[in-house]
Structure formats: structure tokens, C-alpha cells
Write a structure and sequence with these properties.
about 300 residues; Jelly Rolls; 3 helices; about 10% helix; globular; binds 2-acetamido-2-deoxy-beta-D-glucopyranose; GH16_AS; xyloglucan:xyloglucosyl transferase activity; cell wall; transferase
Length: about 300
């Protein structure tokens, strides 16, 4: 008990119930998810409610989030990004808490002009402070098929994985650098699609081309196995319980194989890393301090 897992089908069914309005008035919206914002019909469940699509039109995009909060766990989704023209758009899948001192773990997919590659941007906010961006190119076209994107967040590190390959890790150095690791605040799981013409593509020089709207992103196979935290703060799951699989040895520290995978991504696919940005961090890569530890050759 307290071990939380659910599937896209449940979620999609719930959404379709809202979208069909009161046709099934006796059916309650499963309180797993809330539509945070959506213009007109910009969130749609289909294919027997197994898939959900978000669209972006001139009227706006869409955002939904889980109504449950989680403290540590594994969060996975399959995504198929906007095919063709996608400049100026951002698709996101992320964990977040709220308020001035919020924590947030992000996957953001920055669109591009037709034929140009998407960028995968990852970031982390702790206690309200972000600025820990990393960007990579993907080794496949993320617009033609579904691919799996996973965040594993445990007491030891955060892992971002693409098709189960770790592309980035961030260690828990809270003992030596207090305020550098999200360890206190439960987070919701959220997803959105929005217009980010001002910054997303080629430094904001390529805004959304509305003649190609609607821009459509598909999500399926949500799989969250995580410690749920009730709204009254109680936790049916003990997040300190080291037998939760996401806390296991395999997820505490990268083994050699996965260290090689991160090395491969860093050397072949990485296009930006805040740890090497001297314009923003004059003492990089020695500062920010965590940069000394979040490199695959320091284990
Ligand atoms: C979090 O941020 C607040 C200011 O917004 C600061 O007072 C507090 O010390 C920070 N906590 C940590 C652990 O750094
Ligand atoms: C878009 O394509 C250009 C040209 O290939 C590339 O430089 C850029 O990194 C791509 N991604 C974004 C988000 O601008």
C-alpha cells in the first residue's frame, strides 16, 4: 500500500470524461489529474483513451498535472513530438512543487523549423533557483515515433533517461552544499505544450509559424511508481524506505555501462552545459560547486 502506480489508460479515460462534459455526470473525474489550462479542445484523449494529445493553436496551448504529490520515485512517459514545423514551441514533461522556493525537474523539448532537429533541454530548480540547464540533440527523430522519457529521483541522485539511456545525472550533495538538492518538497507530475517564440528556437529568432497550427504532441504510457504524499502531508509510502526499487543500488550510482552511456551522450550529443558557461558562471566549471561532481568521470 502506498506504492503508487497507474497507467495512461486510467488517466486518458478520466480526461475523456471531462471533455465529454456531463454526458457521464455520475462519473467523477478521477482525481489523479487536473487540466490546469487548455484553450478550447487542446487536450484530447482518443484511440480508446489510450493516448492523449495536446495541441497548440493561436488561442493557446495546454497544461495538465497530477493532483497527487510525490516525494521520490520513477516517472516515465512516451512522447511523440510535433512533426514538421515546430519552431517556437516547447513541449514539457516535468515534476514541480509550488511557491517562491519551489523545486522542479524538467524535460523540455524545443521545436525547430521543418527539417531542423529538436533540442532536448533539461533543468533543475532547487529552492526557487534554476539555471542548471543542459541541452542535447537526440540520436533519433523524436517526431516519427514514440520514445520513452524518464525521471528517476531518489535520495542519491536524479537521472534523466531517454529510451532508458541516462543522458544526465545530478547527485545529492545536500550534506556538503545545503540547498542544492530537491529533498523536502513533494512534487506533482505535469505536462504542457506552449508558445515560447521569444526564446525557444535559435535564440528566439524563429517564432511560431501559425499557418502550420495546430501543433500536436502525443503522450501515452504514463508510468509513475513513486511515493505519494497526501494533501494533509501524510505519506502512505515511506519515502525513506530503502527497499523502494528506485532507491536500489542500481539507481544510487551509475555502473560502468551507464557511465559509458552518459559519456557517449556528453561527448557526442551535448550542445550546452551550464557547468561550462563562463559568461553566466565566471568560475565555471569549478562553480556552481555541484559541477565538480556531476561529471561521469568523477565517481
Ligand atoms: C531557500 O531560499 C530561502 C530564500 O528564498 C533562503 O532563506 C533559505 O536559506 C534557502 N534554503 C536553503 C537550504 O538554501
Ligand atoms: C534548430 O536548428 C538549428 C540549425 O540546425 C540548430 O542550430 C538549433 O540548435 C536547433 N534547435 C533549436 C532549439 O534552435
Amino acid at each position: 500500500m502506498g506504492f503508487h502506480a497507474f497507467t495512461a489508460a486510467v488517466f486518458a479515460l478520466s480526461l475523456s470524461l471531462i471533455l465529454r462534459g456531463s454526458a457521464l455526470a455520475h462519473e467523477k473525474f478521477d482525481d489523479q489529474f487536473n487540466v490546469v489550462w487548455s484553450s478550447s479542445n487542446n487536450i484530447l484523449a482518443y484511440d480508446d483513451s489510450k493516448e492523449v494529445e495536446l495541441s497548440l493553436t493561436k488561442a493557446g496551448g495546454a497544461n495538465f498535472q497530477s493532483s497527487d504529490y510525490f516525494l521520490y520515485g520513477s516517472f516515465s512517459v512516451k512522447l511523440k513530438l510535433i512533426h514538421g514545423e515546430s519552431a517556437g514551441t516547447v513541449t514539457a514533461f516535468y515534476l514541480t512543487s509550488f511557491g517562491e522556493n519551489h523545486d522542479e525537474i524538467d524535460f523540455e523539448f524545443l521545436g525547430n523549423e521543418t527539417g531542423e532537429p529538436y533540442t532536448l533541454h533539461t533543468n533543475l530548480f532547487v529552492n526557487g533557483t534554476g539555471g542548471r540547464e543542459q541541452r542535447i540533440k537526440l540520436w533519433f527523430d523524436p517526431t516519427t515515433d514514440f520514445h520513452t522519457y524518464t525521471i528517476i529521483w531518489n535520495h542519491f541522485q536524479i537521472l534523466w533517461l531517454v529510451d532508458y539511456i541516462p543522458i544526465r545525472f545530478y547527485r545529492n550533495l545536500e550534506d556538503i552544499y545545503p540547498g542544492s538538492y530537491p529533498h523536502l518538497r513533494p512534487m506533482v507530475v505535469s505536462a504542457c505544450l506552449f508558445d515560447a517564440s521569444a526564446w525557444a528556437t535559435q535564440d528566439g529568432t524563429k517564432p511560431v509559424k501559425w499557418q502550420y497550427a495546430p501543433f500536436v504532441v502525443k503522450y501515452k504510457n504514463f508510468a509513475f511508481e513513486a511515493c505519494e504524499v497526501q494533501r494533509d502531508g501524510s505519506t502512505p509510502c515511506d519515502h525513506n524506505y530503502r527497499a523502494n526499487w528506485w532507491e536500489g543500488l542500481y539507481y544510487q550510482k551509475l555502473d560502468e555501462e551507464r557511465r559509458d552511456q552518459v559519456m557517449w551522450v556528453v561527448s557526442k550529443w551535448k550542445i550546452y552545459d551550464y557547468c561550462y558557461d563562463n559568461k553566466r558562471y565566471p568560475r565555471a566549471p569549478l562553480e556552481p560547486l555541484e559541477c565538480n561532481y556531476n561529471v561521469p568521470w568523477v565517481w
